[in-house]
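Data availability (excerpt). The following record was deposited with the supplementary files.
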Amino acid sequence: MLEQILNSPNFNYLARGMTAATMRQEVISHNIANVNTPNYRKTAVEFEELLAKEIYGEDTGNKLQMVRTNDAHLPAVNKPVHAVPTMVEDNTTIMREDNNNVDIDIEMATLLKNQMYYNALATQLRGHVNKVRTAITSGQS
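Predicted structure:
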Protein backbone atom coordinates (compact mmCIF):
# COMPACT_ATOMS: atom_id res chain seq x y z
CA MET A 1 0.00 0.00 0.00
CA LEU A 2 2.71 2.46 0.97
CA GLU A 3 4.65 1.53 -2.16
CA GLN A 4 1.63 2.43 -4.31
CA ILE A 5 1.34 5.82 -2.62
CA LEU A 6 5.03 6.64 -3.01
CA ASN A 7 5.07 5.47 -6.64
CA SER A 8 2.06 7.56 -7.66
CA PRO A 9 2.65 9.84 -10.65
CA ASN A 10 2.06 13.03 -8.62
CA PHE A 11 4.60 12.08 -5.99
CA ASN A 12 7.09 10.93 -8.63
CA TYR A 13 6.84 14.06 -10.81
CA LEU A 14 7.03 16.43 -7.86
CA ALA A 15 10.04 14.66 -6.35
CA ARG A 16 11.90 14.64 -9.68
CA GLY A 17 11.02 18.31 -10.22
CA MET A 18 12.48 19.17 -6.83
CA THR A 19 15.61 17.19 -7.67
CA ALA A 20 15.96 19.17 -10.91
CA ALA A 21 15.44 22.46 -9.06
CA THR A 22 18.11 21.50 -6.52
CA MET A 23 20.53 20.65 -9.32
CA ARG A 24 19.68 23.92 -11.07
CA GLN A 25 20.38 25.84 -7.82
CA GLU A 26 23.85 24.30 -7.66
CA VAL A 27 24.54 25.02 -11.33
CA ILE A 28 23.44 28.65 -11.06
CA SER A 29 25.55 29.10 -7.91
CA HIS A 30 28.53 27.65 -9.76
CA ASN A 31 27.91 30.03 -12.68
CA ILE A 32 27.73 33.02 -10.32
CA ALA A 33 30.93 31.93 -8.56
CA ASN A 34 32.72 31.84 -11.93
CA VAL A 35 31.44 35.14 -13.28
CA ASN A 36 35.01 36.51 -13.45
CA THR A 37 36.78 33.31 -14.56
CA PRO A 38 38.27 33.66 -18.05
CA ASN A 39 37.05 31.15 -20.65
CA TYR A 40 34.32 29.84 -18.34
CA ARG A 41 31.16 28.61 -20.06
CA LYS A 42 27.96 28.69 -18.08
CA THR A 43 25.90 25.57 -17.66
CA ALA A 44 22.17 25.09 -17.36
CA VAL A 45 19.82 22.27 -16.37
CA GLU A 46 17.29 20.81 -18.80
CA PHE A 47 14.36 18.97 -17.28
CA GLU A 48 10.95 20.48 -17.92
CA GLU A 49 11.04 19.87 -21.67
CA LEU A 50 12.13 16.28 -21.09
CA LEU A 51 9.33 15.78 -18.56
CA ALA A 52 6.78 17.16 -21.03
CA LYS A 53 8.00 14.62 -23.60
CA GLU A 54 7.65 11.88 -21.00
CA ILE A 55 4.09 12.86 -20.16
CA TYR A 56 2.76 13.83 -23.59
CA GLY A 57 5.06 11.99 -25.96
CA GLU A 58 7.56 13.31 -28.47
CA ASP A 59 5.17 15.87 -29.95
CA THR A 60 4.33 18.01 -26.90
CA GLY A 61 1.70 19.91 -28.89
CA ASN A 62 -0.27 16.72 -29.56
CA LYS A 63 -1.84 15.62 -26.28
CA LEU A 64 -4.18 13.01 -27.75
CA GLN A 65 -3.44 9.47 -26.68
CA MET A 66 -3.74 6.51 -29.04
CA VAL A 67 -6.79 4.37 -28.29
CA ARG A 68 -7.16 0.70 -29.18
CA THR A 69 -10.70 0.34 -30.57
CA ASN A 70 -10.58 -3.34 -31.45
CA ASP A 71 -8.92 -6.29 -29.74
CA ALA A 72 -7.52 -7.39 -33.11
CA HIS A 73 -5.53 -4.15 -33.39
CA LEU A 74 -1.94 -4.15 -32.29
CA PRO A 75 -1.33 -2.30 -29.03
CA ALA A 76 0.38 1.06 -29.18
CA VAL A 77 4.08 0.74 -28.53
CA ASN A 78 5.29 3.60 -26.41
CA LYS A 79 8.87 3.57 -25.33
CA PRO A 80 8.95 4.41 -21.65
CA VAL A 81 10.90 7.60 -21.18
CA HIS A 82 12.11 8.61 -17.76
CA ALA A 83 13.05 12.28 -17.72
CA VAL A 84 16.26 12.94 -15.82
CA PRO A 85 17.65 16.43 -15.22
CA THR A 86 20.79 16.96 -17.26
CA MET A 87 23.43 19.66 -17.23
CA VAL A 88 24.14 21.34 -20.55
CA GLU A 89 26.99 23.73 -21.31
CA ASP A 90 25.96 26.92 -23.11
CA ASN A 91 28.40 27.74 -25.91
CA THR A 92 26.09 30.06 -27.82
CA THR A 93 27.00 33.44 -26.38
CA ILE A 94 30.09 35.30 -25.25
CA MET A 95 29.55 38.13 -22.80
CA ARG A 96 33.07 39.51 -22.52
CA GLU A 97 36.44 39.62 -24.23
CA ASP A 98 37.83 36.92 -21.92
CA ASN A 99 35.33 34.40 -23.45
CA ASN A 100 33.22 34.19 -20.30
CA ASN A 101 29.51 34.00 -21.11
CA VAL A 102 28.00 34.45 -17.63
CA ASP A 103 25.64 37.42 -17.29
CA ILE A 104 25.20 38.07 -13.57
CA ASP A 105 21.81 39.75 -14.05
CA ILE A 106 20.41 36.77 -15.95
CA GLU A 107 21.85 34.33 -13.42
CA MET A 108 20.33 36.22 -10.47
CA ALA A 109 16.92 36.34 -12.19
CA THR A 110 17.17 32.63 -12.99
CA LEU A 111 18.12 31.94 -9.38
CA LEU A 112 14.99 33.74 -8.17
CA LYS A 113 12.79 31.96 -10.71
CA ASN A 114 14.22 28.59 -9.68
CA GLN A 115 13.63 29.35 -5.99
CA MET A 116 9.99 30.18 -6.72
CA TYR A 117 9.67 26.98 -8.77
CA TYR A 118 11.14 24.89 -5.94
CA ASN A 119 8.85 26.52 -3.36
CA ALA A 120 5.80 25.83 -5.55
CA LEU A 121 6.80 22.18 -5.93
CA ALA A 122 7.41 21.87 -2.18
CA THR A 123 3.94 23.32 -1.50
CA GLN A 124 2.35 20.88 -3.94
CA LEU A 125 4.26 17.95 -2.44
CA ARG A 126 3.25 18.97 1.09
CA GLY A 127 -0.39 19.11 -0.06
CA HIS A 128 -0.10 15.65 -1.63
CA VAL A 129 1.40 14.19 1.55
CA ASN A 130 -1.29 15.88 3.68
CA LYS A 131 -4.01 14.34 1.50
CA VAL A 132 -2.47 10.90 1.90
CA ARG A 133 -2.14 11.42 5.66
CA THR A 134 -5.79 12.50 5.88
CA ALA A 135 -6.88 9.46 3.88
CA ILE A 136 -4.94 7.14 6.19
CA THR A 137 -6.05 8.69 9.47
CA SER A 138 -9.62 9.71 8.59
CA GLY A 139 -11.13 6.46 9.92
CA GLN A 140 -9.38 6.79 13.28
CA SER A 141 -10.81 8.68 16.25
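Summary of structural features: Residues 67 and 91 are 42 Å apart (CA to CA).
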